[in-house]
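Example 3.2
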Amino acid sequence: MSENRLTTATGSPVADNQNSQTAGYQGPILMQDVHLIEKLAAFNRERIPERVVHAKGAGAFGYFEVTHDVSEFTRAKFLSTVGKRTPVLIRFSTVAGEKGSADTERDPRGFAIKFYTEEGNYDLVGNNTPVFFIRDPLKFPDFIHSQKRHPVTNCKNPDAIWDFWSLSPESIHQVTILFSNRGTPRTYRHMHGYGSHTFQWVNEAGQGVWVKYHIRTEQGIENWRRHEAVQLAGEDPDYSTRDLFESIQRKEYPEWSVWVQIIPFDEARNYRFDVFDVTQTISQKDYPLIPVGRIVLNRNPDNYFAQIEQAAFSPANVVPGITFSPDKMLQGRLFAYADAHRYRLGINHTQLPVNRPLSPVTNYQRDGAMRVDGNGGDSVYYEPNSFHGPKQDPAASEPGLSLQGLSGSYAYPQNQFYTQAGDLYRLLPESEKTDLIDNIAASLGQAQKNIQLRQIGHFYKADQEYGQRIAEALHLAEAAPTDLQD
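Structure, written as tokens:
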């Protein structure tokens, strides 16, 4: 067997390392995709004890308050009544850096919200960007590897970073956002948050709609320019962490408004972009934002390790009235996040005070490392049983999705990589276009020339001027666009 053949850990050849197996083109991911499961499970176990991603973070407690009636769309009780308040914890973070990295590095920012509802914990685990670099979880370990340190030099590796992006053209939308000034937000208080994925809301009648979350800062958007962010990384690498803590100490409580886009099932089928593709956005002109509520952070943690470092978020944590979509990245995260916590914090991590739900927990899970409650006492420990133990509740089920197609690995269409990236570039004011070009050139210029040429070809495809200006900034303007698009 060729040494260049990709295999599983047990030596079996891998047929497709770019596309997860799904039930039809838009169907959910199949558990039989053992390569995906093995790849994600191995990735989650690469670091101890800090998080593999989102290692550097800050957080605070507060509340979510319903300001508008959305009961026609969802039966989630915490969204049922205008004026109703639910306790929340938000953890903000950088993504690629280690626990000691600088808060102002160019990086997406994690924006994870835990709602302590009467029906259990609901986690909305998003970022400060509405899209992501990739759209299939099979590529996630490779993507993060490309952002980490070189295994020989232990330094960041621009060749790896840009090589991966240039060979994954679906990343160009997020790359454009990242290298705009939005890639270096001034503070955690001065940025929006997004659920990024498409989720499903279900109402009392069992009717579902697709939903996208937008959490908009009331402090206003503020960003650093590149030289400012670099300077501050040296002067005060904990700037955003300190700012969040001190603003709450001053009782200048940060606030966000919560909005959603609602997309009917039948309209989603024929929408001009795939609504389950996390590299794409859904136009607010087509589906305007609908107000839902507001979030206020008004309490700092009493102990960082106990309440922030040990906080565990997973998009698998939902409540009745909110469920999932066939978004491949979301489907992969449903496994990967909970699995990461089982490894990092242990099988009983949900018993830690910061992760413990306010609602009663009644199940048959017993034993395991670090069990901190009564371990069920002398209650019945199996099901079904004749001793009045907890029983399933059919009312909690959500309607299923209609699926069709053959199982297999399905690639996305190749013609939707560039449209939204180009649209975003053209929307930027001239000063921000200039900063974007400067930021990209400063980073891409450190990569090998063949990687630069490949990546510039993607920028040209998004927008002719976009590609041309980057080529000029890298002194590659003599190359024709057709030569750069191989």
